[in-house]
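ARCHIVE CARD
Drawer: 12
Card no.: 0347
Subject: one protein chain, sequence and derived structure
Cross-reference: see card 0346
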Amino acid sequence: MARALVTGGAGFIGSHLVDGLIARGIDVRILDLLTPPVHDGRVPDYVPADAEFVRGDVRDPECMRQALRDVRYVFHMAAYQDYLPDFSTFFTTNAASTALLYELIVSERRNVELVVVASSQAVYGEGRHRCGSDGDFYPGPRSEEQLEQGEWNHTCPRCGGRLEALWTGEAVMNPHNPYGLSKRDQDEIAVKLGARYKIPSVSFRYSIVQGPRQSFRNAYSGALRNFTVQLGSGVQPLIYEDGEQQRDYVGIRDVARATLLPLDRAAMHGGSFNVGGDRSVSVLELAELVARVVGVGCEPRVTGLYRVGDTRHIRSDVSRLKAQGWLPEESLGDVVRGYVAWALAHPDFHNAAAGAQERMKELGVLRAAATVDSSRA
């Protein structure tokens, strides 16, 4: 029986891949360290009993060496995500572990037939924008001075006019926060070393993935998690900036289907693919949808606070993945309903958003524009 290694296989995306691989009759080995903030040290109850579980660190050569034993497919989903300024951890966990994976495959002549890595939409930074007069740009991060004044939108560097956010394809990576930088490096390591050493490799650049099993503890888990734990606890959902930020949210089942495609489509090998919801939704619209699903009449609170490193608008063009026969099937309503039902029924459900916000304030990640009354934020 073919065997697959899923690093981070007890996590959000990884665990759904484990389910999909087992359903295909593939033997699965999970490698996961089960560390905070995503985990609490225990193996989650959704991890299948018929998957081999190994507690270990993807940065540890001996651990990885053992995990790769008799493996035909590798799905490298282990990652570090946070808003904290622990920059080295992003690169050692996300990029260096990927380099170690290829090092062991090449140096030990392992018969690995496919490597799939979890990249991110964060590699695009602000993505592609257009000025009606001066054409397309890939702007850098918004300046601190701009954000302090509550001026949220990008302007043309030539004429000063407002830029229109466009759908972003795979051609240009322009990350500007530690997570995005580390994922850009991971993406290039996989695709370029894979080509150099003839190891079929695919990188998936996930948009904001949402659905059941998303950790309550991780501040990076996304807006759906934040809004659900707040509204489910009778607290107003907090909206950063003005709430008009555009995003493309994608359901976990659609993501799992996409990530398993390279098992059957050799034409995908050597490529990087966006995986998004193929829809444009504002943060405020998402909060209002979650409130309706939870069944409370709590109005979102637009704070004017902003997180350092956040993008204004980012939406991924999924045309290349569609050409492989994939289409997103889950509506945003279905995604929200599925997550809310799972979250509210979970025994560990609690409002972790307040503590995460205070922690980000302490570290200077979450800041207030000059027009904001900080006593009310």
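Annotation on reverse: The chain is about 30% helix and 15% strand. Residues 87-107 form the longest helix (21 residues).
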